[in-house]
Amino acid sequence: MDAPATIWQTFIDSVQRANLLEWIAVITGIISVWLSKRENILVYPVGLVNTMIYSYLSLQAHLAGEAAVNVYYTIMNVYGWYLWSRKYEASKRPVWNIRFNTAAEQRQSIAFFLILYVALFAALTYMKKAFWPGAIPWADALASAAAFTAMWLMARKKVESWIYWIITNIVSIPLYFVKDMSLTSVYYFILLIMAFFGWYSWKQKAHRDTTHV
Q: Which pLDDT value is given to residue 113?
């Protein structure tokens, strides 16, 4: 059997072995991304289901960084839910509108991402050597640092959050495949496509709101 056929068969076998929890996590994750693209506040309660399940599944797969980021997602889902639900008393309009980072905010988000990557890589490298041989430090740290940054920016409705989601999705596709979670790899491929549409949609809204100010 040639290499592509072997990879395909491995993929099919892995999808068939996916349990109910992974299916629920995948479905709620796709729904939550669709809701975020539409700027719908239901993204947060639906996202909570997804992140809590993936916290558990990631630990089972020795992906400590991804588990940590899903715990962070859970906290940020609550935080984002609060921010998005706030209204001006008079106008009843959302306090937070979709917008671009300022130059200072862009520098802050890049620094946040780089510091997180270095810290996570160091921690995961230690864990791999000490007691968690199944860890993949560089990829887990990269996906996790990008995801931490994306969720932080999304809670504040920043267009740039989608750039970090794109990075997360690109790295996560092969990361979960090698961990025999091919259904989740497909999930991240779908999220990658949706992230490009989300980025375009939010960029258009930010330009429109800036023009109307």
A: 97
